[in-house]
Design a protein that fits this description.
The chain is an all-alpha fold. It is about 80% helix and about 0% strand. It contains seven helices and no strands. The longest helix has 22 residues, at about 1-25. The chain starts with a helix and ends with a helix.
Length: about 120
């Protein structure tokens, strides 16, 4: 019963978020939330929502990072790393990008590259 109630509220949230971005497509945070909600449902439409968030705020790291998290969690390491590199160019002080890159490199057994990323985290 609790799960049914939860699903009902999630469906309402999705509907409300979709209405909000229809009225104002520049709401990058809402696009991110939609992407995250669809990612939890393992629905690949999440990528489109993350892309819309990036389009709404191309100079902000959060929409790019949200998509990188999604790519990482779906084992699309190369795509995630490319997004994280873009973040590092936009904001060299955004340590989460370097840290996640280090984790991905560890998962890829690229120990030296992981070490380099973690070293950047420590220095930043």
């Amino acid at each position: 019963m609790l799960i049914a109630i939860w699903r009902k509220y999630v469906a309402r949230a999705i509907s409300s978020f979709q209405s909000a971005v229809e009225k104002d497509p520049d709401l990058a945070d809402i696009w991110i939330k939609l992407g995250q909600l669809f990612a939890k449902r393992e629905n690949p439409v999440a990528i489109r929502y993350f892309d819309n968030g990036i389009e709404a705020a191309p100079m902000e790291v959060q929409p790019i990072y949200a998509k990188a998290e999604y790519m990482h969690s779906n084992n699309k390491f190369d795509e995630a790393l490319e997004l994280l590199k873009n973040i590092n160019k936009l904001d060299p002080q955004f340590v989460e990008g370097y840290f996640r890159s280090g984790i991905i490199y560890l998962e890829m057994d690229s120990i030296e590259q992981a070490y380099n990323q973690f070293n950047i985290v420590i220095n930043v």
